[in-house]
Amino acid sequence: MTFYSKRLLPSIGVRLLIIILFICPISSAFGQESIELFQLYGQFSPNVEFEEGTGQSDVNEFGVRFRRPFKIGEKSYLVPGIFMEQLDSRLSSEHSKNTFVYTISPRIGLQTKHSEKWSGSYLLIPRISSDLSGFDSDDLQLGGLFLLNYTKSSNKKYQVGAYYNTELFGPVILPLFGFYYISENKKFEADVLAPVAMDINYELSTKVKVGISFWAKGSTFNLHDYGEDEGSYYLEKRSADLFSYVDYSFSKGWAMQVMLGQSFSRIYEVYAGGDKVDLAIGPIKVDDDRMLLNIDLKDSILLKFKLIYRISLTKT
């Protein structure tokens, strides 16, 4: 097997855009008129080159998210849901075939109003994250998230919280800060959860919106096989993706998004199973002396399609 020394770390400013985070979008039910209940998506990036050497690989993602809020009492919503995703790419220019990895993640959330101005969102996130060619305890991860929401006015609120997960390289803790704003005429909307996500859109008509979105997402996957090698490995995958998009509502509640974007600081890194860090606080890993086993893929253009179903919270 070939071993590669680790490439130089990007600046902290860039790393803040590529946080190890993998959560279903969650924001307070209070102060917003609707949420996404269902999302089906596919993302495609063909003929991506490796950082060194020769060879190319397609990088594809397919996923489905579902969540359903149920009102429990006057001040709370229970929000069960599930997230499933498939990723595939060659992990090395020496491999002849793509490696497929999967996420299966049921989750349960609670959104509750603590006072006139303050509410909270709390999410438990267990998941299976592996190539599913076998099964052991390393396939299982457990995470959680909380957000406290301050409603400044009917169209503006602020958020502060944190995310935790038991990634395969070790525990990760991520502070979160956000805000939500919608204009008085309901045409301009901004939803930001830094340093992870951003969506800014403008309504051109009752059926069409245009916008930009940003996702800094990542995860680790247990690999029971790495190419022809059987043993204990894991894949650390993360990317910061910036998109422009058109959102078309073709039926009541249903919309299609067509998105064109660019990845930044994409990472598909493979490590030995026991190669860990002590702690990750956001983008900063403590005592990270892991040995990288492959060569990363370059950044590339992204094409993404989403099928979305939204519901009005006033009807749940």
Query: Could you state the CATH homologous superfamily?
Result: monomeric porin ompg
The percentage helix is: under 10%
Radius of gyration: 20 Å
CATH fold-level assignment: Porin
Number of helices: 1
Which series of helices and strands comes N to C?
A: HEEEEEEEEEEEEEEEEE
Strand order of the largest sheet: 1-2-4-5-6-7-8-9-10-11-12-13-14-17
User: How many distinct folded domains?
Assistant: 1
Strand tally is 17
Q: How does the overall form come out from the CA principal axes?
A: globular
* Class by SSE composition: mainly beta
Topology at a glance:
Layout lengths: L11 H4 L18 E16 L6 E12 L2 E3 L3 E14 L9 E15 L4 E13 L9 E14 L2 E12 L2 E13 L5 E7 L2 E7 L4 E19 L2 E23 L2 E19 L6 E3 L2 E3 L14 E12 L4
Parallel strand pairs: 9-15
Antiparallel strand pairs: 1-2, 1-17, 2-4, 3-4, 4-5, 5-6, 6-7, 7-8, 8-9, 9-10, 10-11, 11-12, 12-13, 13-14, 14-17, 15-16
